[in-house]
Design goal:
Length: 337
């Protein structure tokens, strides 16, 4: 089932039109080599490639961004200097998420497809036997990988586990509200995994059982990342952003009226997170709090959907014209220390 990724980004029902566009900033002179680096546009793609939905990489000279169009996925790679097209799994529709475990690079895609690339560069693909799209993928190792998805608002959420040889669909725990999809999954280890979804659903896996955790919101939660079991942030929202933080026992959440929907987040080891939002906004979330600061908006008016960073200070936010009807164009905003 082809589900528009823009459905993750549009205002909550009823749909609302985008606000008036901000004036475009005039071009500035080139940076002074003695000044701190600034955010910049690292790549813009045409409709032949499509938009980007996610980024991940093991180092600053090996970062992957994935996305594409409904009918075909697209991948680019950053080598530390520039972005270039990278061969992805052939024959798969839109790539929604990318993550690496050990020797494997994983992709979650539309129509129930996953793909994994081994150390030899060869791609293998698997279908979960479902038509719904897979929105997120994460694993603690090559033989312990989770993928999530679904079709909202009226679909059936998908949760599946890879044990090193096969995918197995998992039964969901009892949930206190209706919801149609799990949108992302992330964890600190095999016995500490979280997944977030629409209508504010948060699930936790302790190594044996999935249970629901109270989120404090009924707004859609679209992504999450953390620095440890007691320092995790989830983001979401539609016409207004949502930030939720987990301290190891309780989720605390807040609707951010000054921000549009927030779609992607990544967290550094010190608990400081940076996030990607609609209107090309990149923001930083202070460690241990819900306080935030806008860092950049050079990708305006595009949507930024995925966020990724590295310990050396590299930051990447990816997206594109996702609030427009397909075919989309793509954009990558980056901060290179």
């Amino acid at each position: 089932m082809a589900v528009n990724p823009a459905a993750l980004l549009r205002p909550a029902r009823p749909l609302l039109a985008l606000g008036a566009l901000l004036p475009l900033l005039t071009a500035c002179p080139g940076p002074d080599p003695d000044e701190e680096p600034e955010w910049e546009i690292g790549l813009r793609t045409e409709v032949s490639e499509g938009a980007f939905l996610s980024a991940w990489g093991p180092s600053s000279d090996e970062i992957y961004a994935v996305g594409g169009q409904f009918e075909a996925g697209y991948m680019a790679r950053f080598d530390g200097t520039e972005w270039a097209t990278e061969p992805g799994p052939e024959g798969l529709p839109l790539y929604n998420w990318v993550y690496g475990t050990g020797d494997l690079l994983w992709i979650a895609a539309n129509d129930g497809w996953t793909a994994r690339r081994g150390a030899d560069g060869t791609w293998s693909t698997d279908n979960l036997g479902i038509e719904d799209d897979l929105w997120g993928i994460w694993g603690s190792g090559d033989d312990d990988v989770w993928t999530v998805g679904g079709d909202f608002p009226n679909g059936v959420p998908t949760l599946a586990h890879w044990d090193g040889s096969a995918w197995t669909l998992q039964e969901l725990p009892e949930i206190d509200r209706e919801f149609g999809a799990l949108l992302k999954v992330w964890g600190t280890g095999a016995d500490d995994v979280f997944s977030v979804g629409d209508n504010g659903v948060i699930l936790h896996f302790d190594g044996s059982t999935w249970v629901q955790q109270p989120s404090g919101v009924t707004r859609d939660l679209i992504s999450l990342w953390g620095a440890g079991p007691d320092e995790i942030v989830s983001v979401g929202g539609r016409q207004n952003g949502v930030i939720a933080r987990y301290d190891g026992s309780t989720w605390t959440s807040e609707i951010i009226g000054e921000l549009p929907g927030i779609n992607g987040v990544w967290m550094a080891e010190d608990g400081t997170a940076f996030a990607a939002a609609n209107d090309g906004i990149v923001l930083e979330i202070e460690a241990g709090t819900l306080n935030w600061e806008k860092l950049d908006q050079s990708a305006f008016p595009d949507v930024l959907h995925g966020a990724f960073g590295l310990p050396d200070g590299t930051r990447v936010a990816v997206g594109g014209s996702l609030l427009s009807g397909a075919p989309w164009t793509g954009v990558i905003a980056q901060y290179l220390p």
